């Protein structure tokens, strides 16, 4: 059970606060009869980049549920609950909330499975063949994304200029300065201000809708035996109303895997066709849509460079440093491709040259 339960046959769960461990045990015990819980089976399921932790617990019916621990002084679960209900009403495959103790920050959820989309990808060969499992998995994921994008987004906060700017500001603060030790000159900062303004203008001019904001291979739960099955969608609490290219680029230019650009293009054009057929307000020219995709991806990847640097430096989560080369590659390619972004590409090159150099990656890797 928890570290306070020495009779447990499951792996012990580490709790920094014994009082919270006792509160969690008492909360689970109160739900035992209603949901057929077997508290002695509680074990760690996963943790994420926030302060939330997840535990799996078996039931007498032979199924399992997920218990979430989200300390209320560090995590506000209300957005998660609101967005979960919104997506569920739209037919998206999200967890069912069985119980929620808002005051204590505990939640009992349906279990969407133990296998992430990323963990089931076949990394042994390039997947150009339409019948292979990787393509089927991406097809299923993009079909679920289309369901998300069809959900009304009027109640969501806007992905506005201020939010885009806060995200971009993470790049100079955490990636350039804290992680790479660069001393940014006044000219560098002026260039970044100008470049950020260009990026924001491009993003804010795009068609908008429901944006999950973290729709990628670690936030989709899948059936490892059936690549055509609908994935389960998690980690959607930061959803906003914003550019409809955002979630597509999150998946196709994932921070955790790189596919060759022809594969990205093939999935993107298929999604663009399906989305337009579904009535989403996308450009009727794929070339323009792809351009929007790239600019939105640049904003996301610059933000992620800052976030991964912050996670490593401030939060001690050094594992994210291993993902920076992929993110850097995506950002650098786009910055090298479009007029007005050359100075940003050169500053990115300088950051990695001082670090020893990031080799631009091709193909796909973990």
Question: Which terms would index this structure?
Answer:
globular, 366 residues, five-stranded antiparallel sheet, Phosphorylase Kinase, domain 1, 45% helix, disordered N terminus, 2 domains, two-stranded antiparallel ribbon, alpha+beta, 11% strand
Characterise this structure:
With about 375 residues, this protein is an alpha+beta fold. It has two domains: about 20-110, 2-Layer Sandwich (Phosphorylase Kinase, domain 1), CATH 3.30.200; about 115-355, Aminoglycoside 3'-phosphotransferase, Chain: A, domain 2 (Alpha-Beta Complex). About 45% of the residues lie in helices and about 10% in strands. The chain contains twelve helices and nine strands. The chain has helices spanning about 20-35, 80-90, 115-120, 135-150, 160-170, 170-180, 185-205, 245-250, 260-275, 285-315, 325-335, 340-355; strands at about 45, 55-60, 65-70, 95-100, 105-110, 210, 220, 230-235, 240-245. It has a five-stranded antiparallel β-sheet with strand order 1-2-3-5-4, covered by helices on one side. A two-stranded antiparallel ribbon has the order 6-9. Strands 7-8 form a two-stranded antiparallel sheet. A hairpin with a 5-residue loop joins strand 1 (about 45) and strand 2. The two termini are about 35 Å apart. The model is unreliable at about 1-10 and about 360-365 (pLDDT under 50).
């Amino acid at each position: 059970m928890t570290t306070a339960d020495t009779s447990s046959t499951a792996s012990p769960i580490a709790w920094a606060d014994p009082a919270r461990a006792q509160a969690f045990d008492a909360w689970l015990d109160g739900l035992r009869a209603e949901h057929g819980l077997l508290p002695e089976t509680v074990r760690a399921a996963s943790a994420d980049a926030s302060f939330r932790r997840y535990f799996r617990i078996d039931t007498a019916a032979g199924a399992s549920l997920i218990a979430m621990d989200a300390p209320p002084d560090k995590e506000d679960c209300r957005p998660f609950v609101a967005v979960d209900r919104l997506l569920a009403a739209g037919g998206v495959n999200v967890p069912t909330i069985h119980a929620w103790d808002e005051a204590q920050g505990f939640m009992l959820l349906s279990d969407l499975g133990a296998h992430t989309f990323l963990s089931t990808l076949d990394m042994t060969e390039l997947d150009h063949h339409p019948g292979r499992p990787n393509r089927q998995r991406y097809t299923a994921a993009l079909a679920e994304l289309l369901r998300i994008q069809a959900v009304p987004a009027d109640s969501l906060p806007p992905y506005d200029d201020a939010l885009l700017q806060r995200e971009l500001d993470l790049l100079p603060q955490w990636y350039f300065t804290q992680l790479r030790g660069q001393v940014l000159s006044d000219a560098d900062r002026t260039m970044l201000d100008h470049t950020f303004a260009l990026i924001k203008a491009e993003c804010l001019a795009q068609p908008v809708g429901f944006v999950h904001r973290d729709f990628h291979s670690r936030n989709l739960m899948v059936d490892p035996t059936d690549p055509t099955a609908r994935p389960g969608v998690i980690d959607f609490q930061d959803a906003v109303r914003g550019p409809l290219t955002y979630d597509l680029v999150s998946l196709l230019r994932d921070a955790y895997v790189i596919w060759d650009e022809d594969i990205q293009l093939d999935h993107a054009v298929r999604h663009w066709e399906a989305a337009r057929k579904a009535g989403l307000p996308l450009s009727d020219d794929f070339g323009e849509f792809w351009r929007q995709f790239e600019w939105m991806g640049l904003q996301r990847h610059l933000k992620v460079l800052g976030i991964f640097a912050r996670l490593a430096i401030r939060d001690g989560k050094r594992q994210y440093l291993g993902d920076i080369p992929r993110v850097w590659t995506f950002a650098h390619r786009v910055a090298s491709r479009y007029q007005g972004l050359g100075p940003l590409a050169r500053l990115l090159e300088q950051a990695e040259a001082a670090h020893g150099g990031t080799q631009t990656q091709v193909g796909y890797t973990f």
